[in-house]
Amino acid sequence: MAKAQFHKNQRVYVKPVGTWAQIEHVLPQWAKDVEEPLRIFYDVGLGREFGAEELASEATSEKVSGYDGENWRVMRGKNKWQQPDECSHHPHPGTYPIVVTGENDWGGWRVPGSEYDLYPERIEFQARLIAGSIQLYQLTRELVGYSEDQPENLSNELMSLIQDAKQTLRAVEQDPEAEAE
């Protein structure tokens, strides 16, 4: 037997579509002589009905994010256009940073060589910041979660910082184009 996991007008993340939506109708599937529905589907206004396994509530959206267990890291690429002695002012002469965001060592973030040559320290910092963003994101979520569980243990100054952290998480987790629709 099935029980409804979501309710009408609840905001949910639709995993197959990758967007947030609001449940318009809860649609139980009944069988004759059975007291409870066999399955429950949800109409979110996207053209078909979705099962509970395809949806996630805001409270469980951390499972949707897909960043748990990610291992973003900075690798060094060989500079093909300049010899190490031509770029001795770089922090790592003869190479440039590549932020790898996948399991393989080829996907991720790169910067044009000419831009790296202009601002090598800035690009090195950006690479480290991007690579560390997963840990910063998880740390921020844990801090906000702790503050919601035990608000009485926090000072006013810390609560102000946590409000900023919540706004940052909202900006990261929600697609502004989907919100506008």
Describe this structure in words.
By secondary structure, the chain is of the alpha+beta class. The chain has two domains: 11-63, no CATH class; 73-173, no CATH class. It has helices at residues 113-118, 120-149, 156-173, 176-180; strands at residues 11-14, 19-22, 25-29, 39-43, 49-51, 55-57, 73-78, 95-100, 108-109. The strands form three sheets. The chain has a three-stranded antiparallel beta sheet, with no helix packed on it. A hairpin with a 7-residue loop joins strand 8 (95-100) and strand 9. It is elongated and about 85 Å long. The two termini are 36 Å apart. Residues 60-66 have low confidence and may be disordered.
Give the tags:
2 domains; alpha+beta; single chain; 4 helices; elongated
User: What string gives the helices and strands in order?
Assistant: EEEEEEEEEHHHH
Number of strands: 9
Quickly give the structural class: alpha+beta
The overall number of domains is: 2
Quick check: average pLDDT?
82
Q: How many whole angstroms does the radius of gyration measure?
A: 23 Å
How far the N terminus sits from the C terminus, by CA atoms, comes to 36 Å
Going across the biggest sheet, name each strand in turn.
2-1-6
What percent of the residues sit in helical stretches (DSSP H or I)? 25-40%
Shape: elongated
**Beta-strand proportion:** 15-25%
Uncertain segments of ≥5 residues (pLDDT<50)? 60-66
- Major beta-sheet overview: 3 strands, antiparallel
What's the tally of helices? 4
